[in-house]
Amino acid sequence: LRIGGIPKRIMLINMFATAIYTAGVLSALYASFLNPDYATNASTASGLVNGFATILLTVLLDPRIALLTERALQSESGAESMSKMYGWLMISRLLGTLLAQLLFVPGAYWILWIIEL
């Protein structure tokens, strides 16, 4: 199933990666507030959360978006279809930012769990 010329799976990966990136730093700061004894460790642990998003973007998303862009530019309506495609990707990023609100607190508790090991 495609939405705006983009496979639904790519839209979902983009949404989840954006949600993880958005929640990462704030979750680390909130984790440092929840447990002041580990405040320094928690506040610098946003890389734990953002590492997952980096892997999702680098391995799963960027190569596929590059292929979609190349295919769009080779078609007759290249610029138009590419604009539409990137518009839908921006919508999925907006949805990812909204999803980050749900991941914010669980991310903080996950960071606390990791640093208390």
Automatic annotation (TrEMBL):
Keyword Cell inner membrane: no
TM segment ranges: 12-33, 39-61, 94-115
Record keywords, A-Z: Membrane, Transmembrane, Transmembrane helix
Pfam families: Amj
InterPro entries for the chain: Amj
Tree of life domain: Bacteria
Protein name listed in UniProt: DUF2837 family protein
Taxonomic source organism: Bacillus cereus
